[in-house]
């Protein structure tokens, strides 16, 4: 059920076909290189791209820009306490800033960090501390066709195997990412969180939750985990996050803002260490790299994110988008996740081998046919890993409507009609770090 009406609008337009062809070529067949003004429906990410509410805009105007002791920080601290249940908050400019602060305080060279699946920046920050990030997804996580309620879960079996291999002393931190962005935005059950907490206790490790999409996760828990059918979203969030020693948060997702993030914890010593690092890398601990107005908007956004009517609107919209795409004939990852629909490009463009980047070929065709922008999460983004060839169509919060999604579905249908005439791609330039090549590499169509 729709939960919003529009108070402010932003003009968009679909460039002419020849212009789109030209834009694609000048972008080196990489959608990150497109000008956003040339994109009609932008599903590149759900991060920081959503619409703020009137209450958030009002808070923005009242933001307190004091360098120290800002009232807006008090508001954030109280929102984090009420919504997530933590006493101490260290603000940061966005999620990866918070990761740098927290993992720098927790990790040392040679440590090993298990996570259901590390998001790219998490992996990079763990590695940046000289530690080894290891993914422990459940086996169904990368299977687009298995229908299970919590494919985002952490595999305890894999975690224990890892501890047997490297020794408990090498594992000071266990991480759980909710929802599991790198596994098609699949949710994590509270039961799994409890077990990971117990596992961390067994090996005397700290337990961190990457809480970027904690509210979306709580909505799935309410729908799918019987124990919580009658609980409120806020109660579920408290329960699940309460098992963690600390959370890292990107406010750009379930904080419903365009900038910001934080670390939250009840552990006074960890708080103090994080605060010191934050001063070094982010800013004074009452603004942490955000403007006071952004802190104020985040405080309001966090409370809005656990409103069950907002969440029903959000999750149902994405489910409906998935159904429209399926009706258009494209195979998608099932079940549909919390923030995006993932297209199975390997199945949709089965004439293209992985080396010809079927996912990126689909991304290019979506732009060529309908000015739609998505992101490839297959062999172009993750060289040398055995992942399915997926394309993520991430949905910004409170931004697009059914007509936009119908346009995307029509676009997909037009692409599929082209069948085997959709060309594969090859790399034209390759940046120094292959792990992040998909942001800047240029490609060329195969003849
Ligand atoms: N953790 C997860 C699970 C994320 O999805 C992201 C960002 C981050 C950490 C880092 O947060 O961007 O505020 O620095 N994900 C975005 C995406 C970029 O498109 O999925 P950030």
TrEMBL record:
Gene3D superfamilies the record matches: Aspartate Aminotransferase, domain 1, Type I PLP-dependent aspartate aminotransferase-like (Major domain)
One family name in Pfam for this protein: Beta_elim_lyase
Domain of life, source organism: Archaea
InterPro entries listed in its UniProt record: ArAA_b-elim_lyase/Thr_aldolase, Beta-eliminating_lyase, PyrdxlP-dep_Trfase, PyrdxlP-dep_Trfase_major, PyrdxlP-dep_Trfase_small
Required co-factors: pyridoxal 5'-phosphate
Regions that span the bilayer: none
Positions of the Aromatic amino acid beta-eliminating lyase/threonine aldolase domain: 42-410
Molecular functions per Gene Ontology: tryptophanase activity
Keywords assigned: Lyase, Pyridoxal phosphate
Entry EC no(s): 4.1.99.1
Membership in a protein family: Belongs to the beta-eliminating lyase family.
UniProt name for this protein: Tryptophanase
Organism: Natronobacterium gregoryi (strain ATCC 43098 / DSM 3393 / CCM 3738 / CIP 104747 / IAM 13177 / JCM 8860 / NBRC 102187 / NCIMB 2189 / SP2)
Organism taxonomic ancestry: Archaea, Methanobacteriati, Methanobacteriota, Stenosarchaea group, Halobacteria
